[in-house]
Amino acid sequence: MLNIVARNRVLMLLAVMAAACLALGFAAPGYLSAATASVILSNSLVLLLISLGTMLVILTRNIDVSSGSILGLSAATLGMSLNAGVSLPLAIALCVLTGMAAGALNGLLVAYLRIPSIVATLGTLGLYRGIMLIQTGGRWIEDLPQNLKALAGGIGFGISILTVTVLGLFILAWIFLRRTRFGRYFYAVGDNRDAAHHLGVPVRRVQFTAFVASGACAAIAGLIFAAQIGFIPNQAGNGVELKAIAVNVLGGVSLLGGSGSVAGVFTAAIFLTSIDSALVFLKIPAFWNDFIAGAILLIVLLLDGRIRLLIDRRIRARRYAVHARTPQGGGATGKIADKALLAEASR
Amino acid sequence: MKNILFRWEAALFLMLIAELAVFGFINPRFLNVGNLIYGTSDFVQIGLVALPLTLVIIAGGIDVSFASTIGLCAIVFGVSNFFGVPLPLAIGMALVAGALAGLLNATVIHLSKIQPLVVTLGNLYLFQGAATVLSGAVGAGGYEGIGNFPASFTSFGYAEFLGVPAPLAVFLGLAAVLVVLLHFTRFGRAVFLIGQSAEAARYSGLSVAATQTVTYVITGVCAAIAGLVMSAYFGSARVDLGAATLLPAVTAAVLGGASIYGGQGSILGTLLATFVIGYLQQGLQASGVPSQISSALSGGLLVAAVALRHGSALLADFIAVARQKRNNRASAF
């Protein structure tokens, strides 16, 4: 039972979410509707993308806390070039390029100058926000052209082009991480950097790529933010990086690198967003939001940690049990049994 | 002598002098001693949390929840004041709230064995949420402040103590206590050893959990002190009082020489770094630079400082290797 819980993180999360939704459906009729689902999905787009980018970085055993500022910086680039009369495709390209350049600086600092990622990205968090403010002169960017806002409009079934883009990116990331050699390198680097290096994995290039990808994701999230909100405030994206890390932890991505799945991140982001909307339906005052989100995150962390410890202890107990059963030791049968049990334990 | 000169703190001190000289050159009025001393009240709260944070980082942990602990403790004080609790008791309650917040951090970290960054990140939300709920409970709704403090409390924000403003005096006093605690006690040595290697510390009979717990509790209490000082200075307690201290405080600890991997750092370094960061912001304002640019510069400063430290370490390695090679060649002949 314990192993099933620990190994099927996504299924567990889905089960909890389904139970919570059913309970909410009873408590607040009208919650279980297609309209709610569509609102939750479109509300979670920004968080989904930031979490995806952060996940790529965390997989390589680094962390990126600058994505909120990259979001703001690229959104500002997008808004200012649009208002200067640049066409929409070109402005979007500029926006994504800004994000990638910002990610590349992070990658340069971490992968090539070997600055601890938490320190480097904390620094760039302030740096990028400052550059954004210099760029905009501290003013909000308003009067965005209609064709940008139209991107957030529905194209049927309550979804927009943006939703399709985000889902497409998730599928791409899933294929990349599961099915390509370079994608597998991400897990190898995060799991054991030295071993990966000795196996011929281009460790630095993998880390660098992760940061650039994270920057690109944050830039597209900035595009979505601008299209959905219709204006770009100075504090756009402020604090979303912390939420994205929370999503990753909730979704079963190990902060020690090397394990985690795209599906887990997707489910966890939807889960966290649906909490916010559930509070609205339950008519709980908005000032409870942070408290409840924090409490849920903390409980999940505690449970997750305890389960992991228990499993570790069980595996160790099995290993010691082998030695206890064959006190004479050294016998061929003992060794075989030992191996079989070890194989079972590590499965 | 050489050891003193080549310490990181000496470099920081030079950085501070150079910074003051540059800003004094741009705007001579900046170098007014009164200005410099009283200007500290605007950034002393960064140091108040950066000092204990240095302890946590040296012991191999990290705490980011202090940013909302500041707000939470200020609100606890404000709410108890609102209900007519006498001043000393209200202050005591705020301090206890801070200690409990730190204790919660440490307990969850040790029960779950999950990285401190994640746990304290969760608590960053939780404490902020708790503060918002508490302030909502007395009708201060959301992000409005709680005011109407007794005059004896608010006057503290502008009081003087031995010729220096009271907030600065509190900061220097705290620094003195922590210098003794970290550099001259058994506990301090344990903090360093645990940061170097928690395993080695455990095998040599130190209680890793207890020592780390103490560092988190100290951080909580100091965050409460920062919250109280800020409430007195601004005349109101708000949920988001500490939000702006998160990045500068971590910057101060890291710039001050604390290694994010644990086992390295000093209180004096963090103290100097606090002044470097604080005067950088004020100096830029005095030179007519918009506050947006100063925020970019302080982010850039963190990156540059760390790059410099890593770069100089790499360079030192490189020189040592080159010298060794030369010696080898010399001895071969």
Automatic annotation (TrEMBL), chain A:
Principal location: membrane
InterPro entries tied to this protein: ABC_transp_permease
Record keyword Lyase present: no
Keywords assigned by UniProt, alphabetized: Cell inner membrane, Cell membrane, Membrane, Transmembrane, Transmembrane helix, Transport
Membrane topology recorded in Swiss-Prot or TrEMBL: Multi-pass membrane protein
Localization in the cell: Cell membrane
TM annotation in the entry: 37-59, 80-105, 111-131, 151-177, 208-232, 244-271
SUBUNIT field: The complex is composed of two ATP-binding proteins (LsrA), two transmembrane proteins (LsrC and LsrD) and a solute-binding protein (LsrB).
Job of this protein: Part of the ABC transporter complex LsrABCD involved in autoinducer 2 (AI-2) import. Probably responsible for the translocation of the substrate across the membrane.
Official protein name in the record: Autoinducer 2 import system permease protein LsrC
Species in which this protein is naturally found: Kaistia terrae
From TrEMBL, chain B:
Main location: membrane
Bilayer topology annotation: Multi-pass membrane protein
Protein known as: Autoinducer 2 import system permease protein LsrD
Signal sequence range: none
Function: Part of the ABC transporter complex LsrABCD involved in autoinducer 2 (AI-2) import. Probably responsible for the translocation of the substrate across the membrane.
Pfam families for this protein: BPD_transp_2
Organism: Kaistia terrae
Compartments where found: Cell membrane
Record's subunit section: The complex is composed of two ATP-binding proteins (LsrA), two transmembrane proteins (LsrC and LsrD) and a solute-binding protein (LsrB).
UniProt entry keywords in alphabetical sequence: Cell inner membrane, Cell membrane, Membrane, Transmembrane, Transmembrane helix, Transport
TM segment ranges: 12-30, 36-57, 64-83, 89-112, 124-143, 163-184, 214-235, 241-260, 267-284, 296-321
